[in-house]
Task: inverse folding
C-alpha cells in the first residue's frame, strides 16, 4: 500500500537520525527505533483506511513526531535548551536496559509533547464544533489500537537490541504486555484532558497558555524523574499511573 507522503518524509528523517545514533552507540536509539517502527505502522493504518480523517491524522502524526525529533537534534548542540522531561530522559544512565530508555522516551513524548501537538492541530474552531472534536478524539483513540498491536513485536525487537531477560521477566512478559496496554490507554485519556486544559488557557491569552504549558512541563518532568528512581517501576506506575494531569 502507498504510504502517505507526509508520513514517508518523517520516516526518512527518523531513519537518518537512527543511523547516526547507532553509529554513536547512543542509547536514545532504542526509543527512536521503537518510534520509527510505530510510525511505519501508523502509515500502514492510514493506507488501510482505519481513520475517519486520514489527512488530519497524517499531519498530526508528523507534527507530533517533529516535537521529539527536534528535541533529539537540539540536544546535540544545545542540551540546556531541551525541555525538562526530555533532558531527564536523554540524560538517563546509558547502562539502563533498552526497555527503560524506551519507557522514559514514551513517557516524555506522550505526556509533554502530545497535548502540545493536539493543540497545534485542533484549532479553536474545531473545539467549538462537537462533531469535529468527537472525530478528532476518535482518531486519537484509534492510535491506541495501533500502539497496542505493536507491544508484543516491540518486546521482541528490544530483546534483539540487547534487552536483558531474567527467568522472572520471561514469566511476567504477558502481564507486562497487558500492563503496557492499560498504561497507554490511561495516559491517552489524561492527554485528552490536558489538551482541553491547554485549549482553555489558549482562549485566555498567551500568558495563561505559557503558564499552563509550564505546569505540564513540570508535571511531565516529575513523572520521568519518578521512573528514574530505583525500585520496581511497574509498582510505581500502578500507584501513580503513566500519565499526568494539569488543571
Result:
Amino acid at each position: 500500500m502507498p504510504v502517505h507522503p507526509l508520513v514517508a518524509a518523517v520516516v526518512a528523517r527518523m531513519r537518518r537520525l537512527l543511523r547516526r545514533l547507532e553509529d554513536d552507540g547512543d542509547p536514545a536509539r532504542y526509543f527512536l527505533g521503537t518510534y520509527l517502527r510505530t510510525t511505519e505502522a501508523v502509515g500502514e493504518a492510514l493506507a488501510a483506511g482505519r481513520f475517519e480523517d486520514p489527512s488530519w491524522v497524517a499531519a498530526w502524526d508528523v507534527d507530533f513526531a517533529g516535537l521529539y525529533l527536534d528535541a533529539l537534534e537540539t540536544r546535540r548542540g544545545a542540551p540546556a535548551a531541551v525541555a525538562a522531561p526530555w533532558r531527564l530522559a536523554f540524560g538517563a544512565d546509558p547502562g539502563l536496559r533498552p526497555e527503560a530508555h524506551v519507557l522514559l522516551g514514551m513517557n516524555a513524548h506522550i505526556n509533554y509533547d502530545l497535548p502540545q501537538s493536539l493543540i497545534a492541530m485542533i484549532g479553536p474552531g474545531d473545539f467549538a464544533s462537537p462533531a469535529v472534536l468527537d472525530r478528532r478524539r476518535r482518531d486519537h483513540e484509534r492510535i491506541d489500537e495501533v500502539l497496542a498491536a505493536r507491544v508484543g513485536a516491540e518486546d521482541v525487537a528490544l530483546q534483539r537490541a540487547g534487552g536483558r531477560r531474567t527467568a522472572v521477566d520471561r514469566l511476567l512478559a504477558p502481564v507486562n504486555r497487558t500492563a503496557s496496554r492499560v498504561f497507554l490507554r490511561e495516559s491517552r485519556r489524561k492527554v485528552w484532558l490536558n489538551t482541553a486544559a491547554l485549549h482553555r488557557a489558549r482562549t485566555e491569552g498567551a500568558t495563561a497558555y505559557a503558564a499552563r504549558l509550564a505546569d505540564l512541563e513540570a508535571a511531565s518532568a516529575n513523572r520521568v524523574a519518578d521512573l528514574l528512581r530505583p525500585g520496581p517501576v511497574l509498582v510505581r506506575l500502578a500507584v501513580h499511573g503513566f500519565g499526568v494531569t494539569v488543571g
